[in-house]
Amino acid sequence: METTQRPINSGFDATSTAEEVLNGIDLSGTTALITGGHSGLGLETTRALAGAGAQVIVAARDLRAAEKRVADIESVEVRALDLGDLASIQRFSAEILSTGTHLDILIGNAGVMACPETRVGPGWEAQFAINHLGHYALVNSLLPALEGGARVVMVSSRGHHASGIRWDDVQFARGYDKWLAYGQSKTAGALFAVHLDKLGQRSGVRAFSLHPGMIPTPLQRYVSRAEMIELGWMDDEGNPAHPEALKTPQQGAATQVWAATSPMLEGHGGLYCEDCDIAHLDESDQWSPAGVKPYAIDPTQAERLWALSAELTGIDAFAGRS
Length: 322
Hints:
The protein has helices at 18-21, 40-51, 63-69, 86-98, 126-141, 143-146, 178-200, 225-231, 249-252, 254-261, 299-313; strands at 31-35, 55-60, 76-80, 105-108, 119-120, 124-125, 150-155, 205-211, 271-274, 277-278. The chain is of the alpha/beta class. 50% of the residues are buried.
C-alpha cells in the first residue's frame, strides 16, 4: 500500500523528553485537552504543555484525585469525564462547548490495559469502549470546538501488534483474552486517527496516533508481578529485564507532545508516530520491536471502524457532510 508512513528525521529520538521537544515553541494563547492528564504520561504531558504556555483542561474520572495531582501546575483546570459512560461524555462536551473555548490540541491519553473482563454501557468490552469508543464519542461531540485548526492525538501502543480489529467478534462475546482486547483497542485508536484526519482536514482538524514507548506507569496495575516475569518484563528479583529499553515518564510523554505541537507535522496527518518521529511501516507477520502494522493505518479498515463506532454510539459529527 502507498503511504507517507516513513520517518522524517525529526532530530529527536527515544531519549528526548517532552520539555526538549517543546524547546522554542510558545503555546501561549492555546488550549489543550488531555484525557487522563493527571496520571502517568498524561501528567507529564500536562506539565510540559502548561510549562510552554498552554491552558490545559484535564479530563478525569476521579475529580478529587486529579485536582490533587495537578495542584502544583499553573494554568490547569480539571473537569469530570468517564470515557465508559456516554452520558458523562455528553455532559462534559456540552460544558466545554458552552464556554466557547477553542481547543487547539486534544490528546486521547486515558486508557486501560489488560484488565479483567469488564462490560460497560450496553455490554461493550471495556478496553474497546474506554480506549476507543469513549474517545471517538468525545472528539465527535467536541468537533465545533476543534474546527478552525486543531490537532487530535491518540495514544495508541505497539500493543496493536497483538491484534487487528476482530470484525467477527469485536466485543469478545465468544471468549475474552485481555491482551487481544488491549491490542484491538490500540489498533482502533490508530485507525480512528486515520479516518478522523481524512474527514477533518477541510475544517482544519488533523489527527495522529503514536506509541509512547515502554514506561512503568499506573497503566500496568492489572498486570501482576508473576505475569510481568512470565512476559519477560522483569527478572525473578523484580528488576526490569531490559532496563535499556525503558523510558522515563518525561521521555514517554515526548512523542505525544511532539505529535501535538511539532511544526514539522504541518500539512500532515493520519500518521502513526514513535520516538518523536513518524514510525516506519512494519509489514512482517510477527510482533516487532518498532513500526506500525499496515492494518492499523489502512484507510478502508479505518472507514469501516468509523461506521461501526457511529452505529454503536449513535454519534457521527461528520454525517451528511460532503
